[in-house]
Amino acid sequence: MEYPFLQENYGLLALDPVHIGTGGYRLGRVDNTIVREPGTSLPKIPGTSLSGVLRAFMAMRNNKYPDCAGQGEKHCGSHDCPVCMSFGYSRKKNSFQGLVQLSDAYLLFAPVYSSAGPVWVTSPGALENAGFDLGKVNITDDAVKVVEELPINVPGKISLGWLLLPVTERFTLPEEARIYIPSKMDSRAVLVSDWLFSHIVNDNLEVRTSVSIDPNTGAAQDKRLFTYEAIPRTALLHFKMTIMNPQLFEVPLNNEKPAFSKKKLKEAVLEAAEYLEWLGIGGMITRGMGRMRFINPERGEG
């Protein structure tokens, strides 16, 4: 039986620090904070942010920019427009829900400098959320496990930032995860508890300080110093893409079927995703942030 939808997992590797802000200033460690998952306090990229940039990139690639990009009344709303069929449109007389749905992108591996050099930290919950089965894993909040390939300078212990923790044993990443994860990352993986993962990630986010520049003098403006945080470079996130069967829908006003299959819509999204590596996502792009590499496990790009 053919399912009425297609759902697949993909990855995003940060080539630059990535800042998806919460909007406005906050009292605390930094002025401009990034979006977090409420239950775990882990940074994430909202699905709305992903959909917004991929819609714009798809419009650029298909000569539909700027009419079919973003919001507004200029959407063509045509049944053969990949942008309007993928992400929907809304006009005064009619609207259409997009056939492509993107989940939030959740953190899977976070880079941390350790006594063994750069490592990438993850947790059982993060791996299971990405669809990787670790089996029965017993790990406490005061210890870690490391992969077989990782050398440890101090026998039985490893420092993760300011934390010095005992290494209880070695572990092996699931084979399907090794296809999904960049090869240099899976050989330096460290497994910590879900509780400890949140603390380590938030303690090792990138924090930058910037100041607004007076265009007339070229000097810093008074009282315009601000700080902002970002997901660090080489962090790996994952998300799900769901594509509804176009043949189950009709496009107003003429009630035509979308001129695409699930496969064609998927190809259009993957082509647009290539632009993330050059144009980036989120804020502070002019300050050297935002570029991400789209990872498609089907092509062995991990």
Helix/strand-derived category reads alpha+beta
Please provide the count of β strands.
15
Distance between the termini: 31 Å
The major sheet is characterized as: 11 strands, mixed
Order of helices and strands: EEHHEEEEEHEEEHHEHEEEHHE
What's the pLDDT, averaged over the residues?
Answer: 90
- Helix percentage: 10-25%
Unreliable residue runs: none
> What characteristic shape results from the CA principal axes?
globular
Rg value: 22 Å
Number of helices: 8
> Please, how many domains?
2
Portion of residues in beta strands equals 25-35%
Question: Could you please describe the fold and organization of this structure?
Answer:
The chain has eight helices and 15 strands. With 302 residues, it is α+β, with helices and mostly antiparallel strands. It has two domains: 171 residues, no CATH class; 102 residues, no CATH class. Strands 1, 2, 5, 6, 7, 8, 9, 10, 11, 14 and 15 form an eleven-stranded mixed beta sheet that branches. The chain has a two-stranded antiparallel sheet with strand order 3-4. A two-stranded antiparallel sheet has the order 12-13. A hairpin with a 2-residue loop joins strand 9 and strand 10. The longest helix is centred in the N-terminal third of the chain and has 15 residues. The radius of gyration is 22 Å and the shape is globular. The two termini are 31 Å apart. The model has no long low-confidence stretch (mean pLDDT 90).
